[in-house]
Write a structure and sequence with these properties.
Order of helices and strands: EEEEEEEEEEEEH
CATH superfamily: Jelly Rolls
CATH architecture: Sandwich
Organism: Leptospira yanagawae serovar Saopaulo str. Sao Paulo = ATCC 700523
Protein name: WxcM-like protein
Largest sheet: 5 strands, antiparallel
Number of helices: 1
Pfam families: FdtA
InterPro entries: QdtA_cupin_dom, RmlC-like_jellyroll, RmlC_Cupin_sf
Number of domains: 1
Strand order of the largest sheet: 1-9-6-11-4
CATH class: Mainly Beta
Length: 145
């Protein structure tokens, strides 16, 4: 795996138990395998085509871990200083998305399924959806949300 250079991120590897006849069991426990208490789980599937782009935002406070549990996609990370793209294609390896980390998902394979574990319930006011606003907050070191 390529080293993650972007701030506020890192790999999370879950235990994977393989049974030849009965498939794989992958386990994620909040505050143990995942660096926070899990308050929300969501998944994205039935992506119509590989040209879809999802994400395109950062969170002020919410932390997440994103997994590709089927197929593959490209995860784009941007901490306001560095950008990096990571191929997501291992069902037990996720990427931690910390606070103030712009992220995108694109280049979805057929049958791709993404799963996200989040530290908070959905709150629209936690989102930064304008990239220029994100960069201004990073430049100003704004942490008073």
């Amino acid at each position: 795996m390529e080293k993650i250079r972007v701030l506020n991120s890192g790999y999370i590897t879950l235990k994977k138990i393989h049974d030849d006849r009965d498939g794989n069991l992958i386990i994620a426990e909040g505050s143990k395998d995942i660096p926070f208490e899990i308050k929300r789980v969501y998944y994205i599937n039935n992506l119509e085509n590989s040209i879809s782009v999802r994400g395109l935002h950062a969170h002020k406070n919410c932390q997440q871990v994103i997994f590709c549990i089927n197929g593959s996609f490209t995860l784009g990370l941007d901490d306001g200083h560095q950008k990096q793209k990571i191929l997501m294609n291992k069902d037990n390896v996720g990427v931690f998305l910390g606070k103030m980390l712009w992220h995108t998902m694109e280049d979805f394979s057929s049958g791709c399924v993404l799963m996200v574990l989040a530290s908070d319930l959905y709150d629209e006011s936690d989102y930064i959806r304008n990239y220029d606003d994100f960069l201004i907050r990073i430049k100003n070191g704004d942490s008073s949300f």
